[in-house]
User: Fold this.
Amino acid sequence: MRYFLSLILFSVFVRKSEETTTVKIGVLLMTSAPEPFDHRRVGPALDIAFERAEAEYGVKYDVIVRNYTGNCPKQTVIGYLSELYYIENVKAVIGPACSETIEAAGRLAQYLEMPMISGVGDLVIRKQKDMYTTFTRMSYNLDKLSDYVFFNLAGNSLARDFKADGDLPRPVDIPFRKATLNNQHKSLLTEANLHARGKILR
Ligand SMILES: *[C@@H]1O[C@H](CO)[C@@H](O)[C@H](O)[C@H]1NC(C)=O
Assistant:
């Protein structure tokens, strides 16, 4: 009897863990932009995340993508967000990515009480008294990054880490003095360009 009972419990447990919950969500991103947060580049990362969410957490996302042309067009994003909510009945939205469009669409998401998640939006100003209450920003806070993380926390170690990593080619140090930077910056950047794909200016 006990064996039988545990068998039933076991089968219930197994069936329960295999159950998936389906959530309909929207994705709002620019089709193609110079910035690295367009649908072309973010889309594949989202696909991987959706697959993992289903395999590991049993959450299946039914995804409606609304991609758009233009450079961070506020009116398009607000229009698409309302269509996603009122016509497609999505429960949450990933994106948009530009700060300007988050400022615009974030208020509609707040009114609709719809969760909105973005990887950037680092220029969106949120005050304690005037929050975008349904918006979650996954990126850094630009103020905190520049003041605290970049200078206080990373500081010298940022350069040291690159130097210490044997797998990376040696970084090119181009010293400059802040006082003379105004006249030098063009030649500094031109020289840096010859050696590197990325630059850290301190
Ligand atoms: C959305 O993205 C697809 C795939 O890149 C593209 O074919 C389509 O034209 C885009 N739609 C708009 C409105 O930009």
